[in-house]
Amino acid sequence: MQQEVTNSGRVGIEYDHINLENLKKLQDALSEAELVDISKMTMRQRMVKSAEEIELIRNGAQVADIGGAACVEAIGERVPEYEVALHSTQAMVREISRRYPESDIMDTWTWFQSGINTDGAHNPVSTRKIQKGDILSLNCFPMIGGYYTALERTLFFDHASDRHLEIWDVNVEVHRRGLELIRPGVRCCDIAEELNEIFSKHDLLQYRTFGYGHSFGSLSHYYGREAGLELREDIETVLEPNMVVSIEPMVMLPETLPGAGGYREHDILVVTEDGAENITAFPFGPEHNIIP
């Protein structure tokens, strides 16, 4: 770095992606340079996608749908969660390699939970075996070239209790309304507030666990995601064409209550000039996802 960068002037750094140890190394290596935080500026650039990025994300959403179908294919009585997850992950990895034969394959996986194990957004996969009447959580995450996409669905095996169906229907209502609200000119916080009203009307808002969606693109556990494009009450960002966001409402009822478990639906949308395009095709709701 000392050879590439003149030891004077200003050097831009994303402060939110550097730890104290590495910051000290940079300060020592470039002792005469001024280190400037450019994290908000670069985040803003990443929030609006190019046509090439959108095409990559679109392919990722299609791969996620294939992973979801593989999950459903593997579901059965006494099948352990990890077997369903493995079957889905293999299907996505093979599809990515088919679409991008010269690519690196990394960090594509499925999380799949059953019963009360669904009570968190991304609980680890376990050895628990599926039982009739279980609520199920499908979470497919393909990565292509550093770009993540996702598919998340609530399912049930064999049947769902009346209370489970009631809660599921409410979450689906919130999800549908969220899909309708994604369009240019709308503030993230206003979307969150309107969706809160639906949960509140059904006395479920206290079981909501996190935001209603977020930016998609170059994100992972290595380098985070764009915090300025989260569908939360505290984010005033206005949606623009070529932003890519998810709608993913979730409520979680604890084990002591009827209808216990986590309910989550997740679609990815590309904001257009006059609305939004939903690039997730996998169906959602009780009419599609009670698996016999």
Automatic annotation (TrEMBL):
Residues 5-48 form the Creatinase N-terminal domain. This is Creatininase. CDD domains: Creatinase. Residues 55-273 form the Peptidase M24 domain. One of its GO terms (molecular function) is creatinase activity. InterPro entries: Creatin/AminoP/Spt16_N, Creatinase/aminopeptidase-like, Creatinase_C, Creatinase_N, Pept_M24, Peptidase_M24B. SUPFAM superfamilies: Creatinase/aminopeptidase (SSF55920), Creatinase/prolidase N-terminal domain (SSF53092). PANTHER family: AMINOPEPTIDASE, XAA-PRO AMINOPEPTIDASE P-RELATED. Pfam families: Creatinase_N (PF01321), Peptidase_M24 (PF00557).
